[in-house]
Amino acid sequence: MWFENDYRRIFMDMHLNDTNPEYLSKLDVDNFVAHLKEADASSVVVKAHSHVGLNYWKCKNGRMHRTLERRNLDYVGEMIEKCHAAGIKVIVYFSQIYDNYAYETHKSWHLKHATGLSSYHVPLNKKNRYGLVCPNNPEYRQYCKDILTELCTSYDFEGMFLDMPFWPYPCYCRHCQKKYLEETGKPIPRIQNPNSKAWQEFIHIRQRWMQEFILENTQTVKSINPEISIEHNMAAIGENWNCANVEMNTDASDYAGGDYYGGYLQQSFMCKYYNNITRTKPFSYITSRCDKNLFAHTVSRTKDDLLIHSVNALVHGGAFSICDAMNPDGTFTESMYTGAIREVFAETKPLEPYVSGNLKTDVAVLYSTNCKLNENYISAPMHIVKTLKEHNIAFDVVGSRNLKNLKAKVLCIAGAFEITNEEFEDIKAFVENGGSLFISEGFGKNAKLERFAGVEVQRTSAFTYCYLEPKPQFADYMKTFDRQSPYPVEHTAQEAKIIDSAVETLATLTYPYTKRSERDFSAIHSDPPGRHTLYPAVTLVQRGKGQVMWVAAPLEQTEAHHCRQSLSDMILYLMRGEKRTFISNAPDFVEIVAWEKNGKDYLALVNQQEVTPVYPIQDIEITLPESYQNVQVLSKGSTVQLTQADGETKLLVKKLPVFCMMELEK
Ligand SMILES: [Zn+2]
């Protein structure tokens, strides 16, 4: 489709009211398009229907923004016409569920909180400016259909951005209640208990309901013009069960995309994940012009910050979209378009032909969105990713759909609340074909996976603090830890028995002298180890050509240096004897990404220092397991020396500014 080589995007946010005639009074389409052209943006998101629910064109359905109406300004139509004349593609924006106009006009459409209140009145809700309507309301669904139909039949544009495809909270409106009763014969549960079957069933049903709603909107557009690309904003996939935004939702979009404001580690995580779950490439990563998010309207990110975000998206094969925020009067921060944004786009544009290949990976980390009812549903995989990045282990983040034919050497599962039998079959095939599986704590309530690891969990420990005590043969992989000072985890442990004689115990569980629930203690500040048990803490078993390592407590939660080192060493233990994609001395904040495209190999180093200006780093060494004849540096400001020895290649990056991208020739 049209977006295949579209990497430089502007996303102009303008959820503006019309209660003051000043709002949008200075909006100047010619000036805006001239600045997009100046910045060399390849596409722009044009707001048509904002969270305020007002339309930015001369609409038949809904209501037009009064200032635009008074000015006789068809913002959508003029933007499309003038952007196209300037060679800029247009993605039209439509807000779902968040719609103040619909909320204020149709009381019966309201999304209803468990208290029975509508969104303007929900207690303890800082966000009660937003009018929320229920996607299960048939009249609201027709309203979406009418507006989308009107937009697609009135204008000719390339893509559509459908925002807010998630539940802000569980809805108890009469349509939801009726639908739930019809489908299950039961009322919607009200007690939020992650361990209750009834609550888990509700979580799955509302995920499906959201899927039906967004697929319907996608179908409305596609039935009129299948050439229009659809991007439902998938940002809430990083949120817990409440939003019900899950992996299957990407089926309603041509490509995955979402807006994030959580820094470079979160970006790396999400870019890798999106690159794997997207139906077509490139995916889209959006962050704000404002520093750090749209709530900081008047302060812009530095050029370096935008450049790191832009390159980080690009090296993962993603488009970078800068979400700008228009001033209420319709003006915007023009200096960013003639300055930082233009400079960033100018640096990344020449690199676009080399990206969007196949990422090389040693370790894949599963991000499971099946049922995000546990607290560590994303923090567990995120902690593992942080450690892998710090130790320069080539990693990827995969979804359920990527478990089939997984290319990695090791698969890590941590914080997965629910593993389905289909997923288990894929995981089993991966291991039996020679892959290694690393599981932290839970088996996603899948008894087959538990048996596959050769253990049977009997109970969760009564102790809320535990230790992993390495056996002598595993001491090298849990350095600095021993019987006296075992690896600490401030969490309960899974007490299991070994059910397969092939299972080797590499560490055992140790508990403190006392439980936190007791009045007695050994040391007043802490819970030092005192009770050594025979419960397995780390187990290993061969399965087919592969192996499974299980850890009985969420070890990734402990963030101490030596614990991160152990976690890294334990994962590397599973790769012993295999060649790694790269080995490097790069510091924690430098991320190395390797990929292959059209038979050529590429390597990028991104200097993700959190505080700018970014200080250049000297003399980063990278060892590659293959013999390369030549290296060509594609970016500016770096020199790289190449030497060969014993079939390996050593690269010395003499100076790394914000980033370095290179092509390797065999
Ligand atoms: Zn409802």
Protein model, in words:
This protein is α/β, with parallel strands linked by helices and 666 residues long. The chain folds into 3 domains: 2-356, Glycosidases (TIM Barrel); 361-573, Rossmann fold; 583-665, Immunoglobulin-like (Sandwich). The chain contains 15 helices and 30 strands. A 9-stranded mixed beta sheet has the order 13-12-14-15-22-21-20-17-18, with helices on both faces. α9 (303-315) links the parallel β9 (284-288) and β10 (319-325). The longest helix is centred in the first third of the chain and has 28 residues, at 197-224. The radius of gyration is 27 Å and the shape is globular. Bound molecules: zinc ion.
Please name the defining characteristics of this protein.
Immunoglobulin-like; single chain; nine-stranded mixed beta sheet; alpha/beta; binds zinc ion; 15 helices; eight-stranded parallel beta sheet; 666 residues
Summarize the structure.
The protein is an alpha/beta fold and 666 residues long.
What's the SSE blueprint?
Blueprint: E1 8-13, H1 29-39, E2 43-49, E3 54-55, E4 63-64, H2 66-71, H3 75-85, E5 89-95, H4 100-105, H5 138-154, E6 159-163, H6 174-184, H7 197-224, E7 229-232, E8 257-259, H8 264-277, E9 284-288, H9 303-315, E10 319-325, H10 334-338, H11 340-348, E11 358-359, E12 363-366, H12 379-390, E13 395-398, E14 410-414, H13 421-432, E15 436-440, H14 447-452, E16 455-460, E17 466-470, E18 487-489, E19 494-498, E20 504-512, E21 529-543, E22 546-551, H15 561-573, E23 583-584, E24 590-597, E25 600-607, E26 617-624, E27 630-633, E28 640-645, E29 648-656, E30 659-665
Parallel strand pairs: 1-2, 1-10, 2-5, 3-4, 5-6, 6-7, 8-9, 9-10, 12-13, 12-14, 14-15, 15-22
Antiparallel strand pairs: 11-24, 16-19, 17-18, 17-20, 20-21, 21-22, 23-26, 24-25, 25-30, 26-29, 27-30, 28-29
Bound molecules: zinc ion.
